[in-house]
Design a protein that fits this description.
About 65% of the residues lie in helices and about 10% in strands. It has ten helices and six strands. Helix 2 packs antiparallel against helix 3, helix 3 packs antiparallel against helix 5 and helix 8 packs across helix 9.
């Protein structure tokens, strides 16, 4: 996850460095006799805790809107607590109020931003938990979960897609699929090893589960292909979701040694799951050829 957020790490370091330089240029160092050990301990501990929050977010969260709120909220807290700690070592001119404002204002703003991010995180977890509960209930009678990615496999995809096709045809609603294909995954495994490939698949499945809606069903259709069933979704909505996934996947594959991925969308017009899934091959081939710029009903 760190590689996805290297710009955030750089921004954090630059912001703290700017705060330090501003404090040194506007104030004078206090004598050691003026230090308050209790205040330094309390404010230092608060800063370390805020830095810990920031580190956990960067190390465990995929890139996305919720992560942005969590990151910037935590960064504002770290910046405010950092300046507050510097205040114990540096004395500022009484007429210079900027440092006082910078110490006080970012903290409440950061709390609000962080709270908003936590609400989004809670919603994500509720959606993921609903999927996990549904998988657990289904798994009691059907061994259809892929053991590596913990996603549904091809058999379940056929079953749920056939059910959704019949339901949507009877109610004249639109059903779409998103198809994600890992380019030359066999070559990646040969070059980096099976363990690296398994780790990559696990990270990819976590990203897909967190980015799709709770009503969507994401399955591992083949060793290097994933298919998401999007109920009650128009082609325009599916195209937006596909573009969003491409942006998130760009963060995942930003490392030079990671395989590239192709995302394609299609509107389901076939009357059987088997026929619809056969069309996913065409959708992926067109996407790789650069011709699948928009969803096409005839796919």
């Amino acid at each position: 996850m760190w590689r996805q957020h290297r710009y955030k790490i750089l921004l954090s370091l630059i912001l703290l460095l700017c705060g330090l330089l501003l404090a040194l240029n506007t104030g004078a160092a206090k004598h050691s006799s003026e230090f308050d050990a209790l205040d330094i301990l309390g404010e230092g501990t608060t800063l370390l805790v805020a830095c810990g929050w920031l580190g956990l977010i960067i190390s465990s969260r995929p890139a996305g809107r919720v992560t942005e709120w969590l990151y910037y909220g935590s960064l504002l807290l770290v910046f405010s607590y950092f300046l507050d700690l510097l205040d114990e070592f540096i004395r500022y001119p009484e007429q210079f109020r900027l440092m006082s404002w910078l110490e006080s204002l970012p903290a409440p703003v950061g709390m609000l931003v962080l709270t908003y991010g936590l609400v989004g995180w809670h919603r994500e977890q509720r959606a993921i938990n609903r999927q996990l509960r549904g998988r657990e209930l289904f798994l009691r009678d059907h061994q259809l979960i892929d053991p590596l990615t913990q996603l549904y496999g091809a058999d379940y995809l056929h079953a749920v897609l056939q059910r959704e096709i019949e339901l949507h045809l009877s109610q004249h609603r639109t059903l779409c699929l998103l198809v994600l294909d890992i380019d030359d995954f066999a070559g990646f495994n040969r070059h980096h090893g099976i363990a690296a490939g398994d780790t990559y698949l696990s990270r990819l499945s976590e990203l897909l589960s967190s980015q799709l809606r709770h009503s969507d069903v994401i399955c591992r259709y083949a060793g290097d292909r994933f298919v998401a069933v999007l109920p009650n979704t128009t082609p325009q909505q599916a195209q937006i979701m596909a573009q969003h996934l491409r942006q998130q996947i760009t963060q995942l594959v930003s490392a030079g040694d990671a395989p590239q991925l192709t995302v394609a969308g299609m509107t389901v017009q076939q009357h059987s799951a088997q026929a619809a899934l056969q069309q996913t091959d065409i959708a992926i081939k067109q996407a790789k050829a650069g011709s699948a710029l928009k969803l096409r009903p005839e796919l």
